[in-house]
Amino acid sequence: QVQLVESGGGLVQPGGSLRLSCAVSGIIFSRYTMGWYRQTPGKERELVATIGSGRSTNYADSVKGRFTISRDNAKNRVYLQMNGLKPEDTAVYYCKADRRPFSTLEYWGKGTLVTVSS
Fold first, then answer.
1. Which of 30, 51, 42, 39 is nearest to 93 (CA)?
2. What percent of the chain has pLDDT over 70?
3. How far apart are CA 36 and CA 20, in angstroms?
4. Phi/psi of residue 56, nearest 5 degrees
5. Confidence class of residue 101 from pLDDT cuts 50, 70 and 90?
6. For residue 73, what is the DSSP state?
7. CA-CA distance, 38 to 43, in Å (whole number)?
């Protein structure tokens, strides 16, 4: 059974930092592209950052220079370090695993809420 479990969300003041973590089980983690996505009520889920099996990274323009995605294949975890948080970063953050273009299967976690507010 594939499981992705996010943690690390919470309430933080503008300008603050949080580190999200996603623990993955049930797949050969090192072979998967991992991604962080976020969603706010009434809006579509959007890409935040991805990291490939070869550790290439991709970021949404809105988070470049503030967020860093990383992975630890030994621990089957992917992380999102978020610095310089803004109120508009408030969202539920989801972890995703996929193996495109080799497969259309994708796996999602249930999300962790990040609230940026004073």
1. 39
2. 100
3. 9
4. -70, 145
5. confident
6. T
7. 10
State whether residue 29 is helix, strand or coil.
Answer: helix
What is the Cα–Cα distance from 30 to 17, expressed in whole angstroms? Answer: 27
Q: Which of 79, 77, 70, 113 is nearest to 93 (CA)?
A: 113
pLDDT reported for residue 102? 87
Cα separation, 62 vs 27, whole angstroms: 30
Please give the single-letter amino acid code of residue 22: C
Closest CA to 71 of 97, 37, 34: 34
The answer to whether 69 touches 50, Cβ cutoff 8 Å, is yes
- DSSP symbol at 28: -
Which residues, 6 or more positions from 79, have their beta carbon under 8 angstroms from its beta carbon?
19, 20, 21, 22, 69, 70, 71, 72
Instruction: Confirm if 45 and 37 have CB atoms less than 8 A apart.
Output: yes
Q: Which long-range contacts (CB under 8 A, 24 or more apart) does 49-56 make?
A: 49/80, 51/78
pLDDT tens, position by position, 9-19: 999 999 999 99
